[in-house]
Amino acid sequence: MKEEFLKGLPSGYKIQNYIIKKILGKGGYSITYLAEDMNTQEKIALKEFNPFKEVLRREDERIRPNPEELEEFNLRKRKFLDEADFLINIQHENIVNVTGSFEANNTHYIVMDFLPGESLARVLKRRRLTEFELLRISLSLANALQFLHSMNVYHLDVKSLNVYIPEEGEPFLFDFGSSWQQLQLRKLPEHEEFIHTAGYAPFEVQKGFTRELGPWSDIYGLGAIMYEVIVGSKPVKASIRKETINDGKQDQVEEYLNKTEHPYSEEIKNSVKKALHLEINQRPDDAHLWVEEFQLQQLHEKARNEDKAQGGDYLREADSFWKKGKFGKAFTILKNASLRESSIAWYMMGFLNEGGKGVKQDFQRARKWYKKAALKGERRAKRDLGMLLRNKFNDDVHLLGAAQWLQRAADEGDAQAMSVLGLMYRNEVGVKKNYKKALELFRK
Fold this sequence. Notes:
The chain has helices spanning 70-88, 120-126, 131-150, 182-186, 203-206, 215-231, 238-246, 252-259, 266-275, 287-293, 296-309, 312-322, 327-338, 343-355, 363-375, 379-392, 396-411, 415-427, 435-443; strands at residues 3-4, 14-15, 18-26, 30-37, 43-49, 55-58, 63-65, 98-104, 107-113, 117-119, 153-154, 163-166, 172-173, 180-181. Strands 2-3-4-5-9-8 form a 6-stranded antiparallel β-sheet, with helices on one face. A 3-stranded antiparallel β-sheet has the order 1-6-7, with no helix packed on it. By secondary structure, it is α+β, with helices and mostly antiparallel strands.
């Protein structure tokens, strides 16, 4: 019988009372499908345990574990079942709602509510969040973590990819494949390898120190998400941050939070610094007390009032058309936000002009919008303006300008700007050849 790696269930496949529509996403140990209940015609999300490296999928769609990985397969399957059992028995507006689970195809499935929307990670690929949006999401996650921690459960993989932003309703946390209960952790050896994502994971999770895990470990992940929104990239790995500090250099998190020109309140930046503290005893151990300490709820109310005046509603309306591929409609709405002096709107309009999406391709107009946004602090606009000047206005004056804008973006922690600027120094494009400077940028 034919067997294949990395294969999902095909569209139209029937399983229990559901019919598969399409694959929504793949993780290291699961595939999530959009499916429809054949009795009610309601759409649901169906998560299948499918650790790609450890299984084959037979022609009849049954999973067959690789004999050499059978022990690991069974351990991970047990963990998947624990995830299902836990989530079925809880309900919270900021945690994914699981309604059932079942066994089929020699593997296990979790049935979840499906809400139209997308992950925070996908939103951040398009644009920066306003302060109101950042606080709304941060407070929702703080509520979710407080609820979990009250039951002595730790998520341990809090990151933007595991935060869902529905078109309607509250943001919520999902994918509990890495979560552990405190009692389970006590049964583990002092050192254990945990599934984690570099940058979002604190040192104790990265190194697998089971006795040091706690609420503070998840709050670090929340801080990393907020840092990602503010700076534009996730934090440097915790172990590298430790090495940097031990070498007597400034912590990269402190450096880039201080340098960013994005207009976020100092209280928010300070709350992030505390959440991302490398030392456990200096990090918050209670999400709600951390919110109170930095008055994030009060800042949220203030930001709500300012958001409308700054064109926030127009941004979100334009965003809803953008993700559907209706770029012309999005551009028209962004014009309204641009009249409110929205640097996010200026950047997005520049992006559409440069790519010719929904509007005529026009590099001069793109440059105009990028520059307006860059002068108001938009890091992506600085980077993309530099890239545009380098690639489309290829003369000495514009190449020098490209290097200057890329340097400004690099100074704020933009990795792509660092890479491109490093190439310019190496190849003597717009700047004097400087291998030392190039190596420094590549290393960063």
